[in-house]
Design brief:
Rossmann fold; Immunoglobulin-like; 32% strand; disordered N terminus
Length: 272
């Protein structure tokens, strides 16, 4: 998560975000692998999106891949486990590369597990890959069963897929006040730069909407807005209640500082 307190760009004689986004968007998006995948990401890796995963499952998952390997990081909650091999207690995890991918499995997955064949805590599962044709498509199915000391949930699966290609514009969700002239200027700039931008207001945004985009920009109103004081009061409450998301976030201005403090984050930049 990023918090940038102020920009120095001026459009129509008013403070504006484009310089901030130009300077940080590339870094934020190329860093998404490390933001979402812990220490997995490295040069040449691309991030995969995770879909069809029940939010109630007792684990989180993220994934990156490159030309020779798919890496899947699973973070199980304490007390829960999966099976890395057939131990007679339930089906082990399995990774299947799906039709339409430009890669195939080049060997068996490497699955760290204990002596009982159980996967616990934070684990990185890797699958060697071999390119089969030109292109960048990669889609895989991860099958598993998760258990604790009292129960085993029904076998389930989720899908991993490369989130975007070079031909697909990156998407930005701009969260801002009802200052239409300000949001229109930001949106117009982003669209001219080749991005897809959706605008929503503080009270309307949802976690699902944030995680459906490549980048979230949490804006603050200009100090000369008529709505400054109103937004200050309502915005502080919303910033404090803003959900923790996996998508990289640029939090701007005084509301960004409130959000940063509410999430107890120690990462911030100075002034641009």
């Amino acid at each position: 998560m990023f918090c940038l307190r102020q920009t120095g760009a001026i459009v129509n004689n008013k403070p504006f975000l484009p310089l901030l986004i130009l300077l940080t968007l590339g870094a934020a998006l190329f860093a998404q692998g490390s933001t979402k995948v812990g220490d997995l990401a490295r040069a040449g890796d691309f991030r995969l999106s995770v879909t069809e995963l029940d939010a109630a499952e007792p684990f989180q998952v993220s994934a990156v891949a490159h030309e020779q390997q798919l890496s899947i990081e699973v973070r199980l909650e304490p007390g829960w486990h999966m099976y890395g091999r057939d131990a007679g207690k339930g089906p082990p995890v399995a990774i299947t590369i799906l039709q339409g991918s430009c890669f195939e499995a080049a060997g068996a997955p490497v699955i760290p597990m204990d002596a009982e064949g159980e996967i616990k805590g934070k684990t990185t599962i890797t699958l060697p890959l071999r390119r089969t044709r030109s292109g960048n498509s990669l889609k895989a199915r991860f099958s598993y069963m998760v258990c604790d000391a009292l129960e085993c949930k029904a076998p389930a699966e989720f899908t991993l897929e490369r989130s975007h290609s070079a031909s697909k514009p990156l998407t930005v969700l701009l969260i801002t006040s009802d200052d239409k002239s300000r949001s229109d200027r930001i949106q117009e700039f982003l669209q001219k730069a080749g991005f897809t931008c959706k605008v929503t207001q503080y009270a309307a945004v949802t976690k699902a909407e944030c995680e459906a985009h490549d980048l979230v920009v949490y804006d603050s109103p200009c100090s000369d807005q008529d709505t400054w004081r109103t937004v200050s009061r309502a915005g502080r409450k919303h910033a404090a209640e803003f959900p923790k998301i996996k998508t990289p976030l640029i939090a701007v201005g005084f509301l960004g500082t409130e959000l940063l403090d509410a999430h107890r984050l120690a990462i911030a930049c100075g002034y641009i």
